[in-house]
Amino acid sequence: MLFLLLIVLQAKLWFGAHGVFQLWSLDSTITDERDRNDLISLRNEALHAEVKELKEGREALEARARSQLGFIKDGEVFYRVIPKVGDALPTE
After folding, report:
1. Which of 53, 30, 87, 47 lies closest to 22 in space, CA to CA?
2. What's the structural domain count of the chain?
3. Which residues form the signal peptide (predicted)?
4. Is residue 6 part of a domain?
5. 62-80: string of b/e by CB count within 10 Å (b at 16+)?
6. Rounded CA separation 76/66 (Å)
7. What is the mean pLDDT of each run of 10 residues along the chain (92 residues)?
C-alpha cells in the first residue's frame, strides 16, 4: 500500500499540473520573455534618445525634415534628375 502511495505521489510530482516538467516549461518561458523585454527596453531607450534629440536639437530636426520631407532652405536650389525612359539606374 505504501509503495502504491509513493508511486501516486511521484507521478503527481513529475507529471501533475504543478509538477517538475511544468516548472521547467514555465522557467523557459520566463527566460524567453525576459530576453524579449530586454530587447524592447533597448529599443525604447533608443526611441527616447531620438525624441529628446528632436526636441532639443534643431540640427536633428532639420536633418530629418531634409531627408524624409524634402525640406529646402531659402536661397537653396533643388535639382531633380529624372532618367530617360530607356535608361535604367544601376541596382545592387
Report:
1. 30
2. 1
3. none
4. no
5. eeeeeeeeeeeeeeeeeee
6. 12
7. 84 79 89 97 94 81 80 81 72 55
8 domain-assigned: no
CA atoms within 13 A on the CB side of 38: 6
User: Do the domain assignments include residue 89?
Assistant: no
Q: CB within 8 A of 71, min separation 6: which ones? A: 62, 65
How far apart, in whole angstroms, are the C-alpha atoms of residue 1 and residue 17?
Answer: 24
Euclidean distance between CA atoms 45 and 67, whole angstroms: 23
As given in the structure block, the three cell numbers for residue 92 are 545592387
Distance of alpha carbon 43 from alpha carbon 64, whole angstroms: 19
Tell me the C-alpha distance between 78 and 60, whole Å: 20
By CB neighbour count within 10 A (0-12 exposed, 13-18 middle, 19+ buried), where does 61 fall?
A: middle
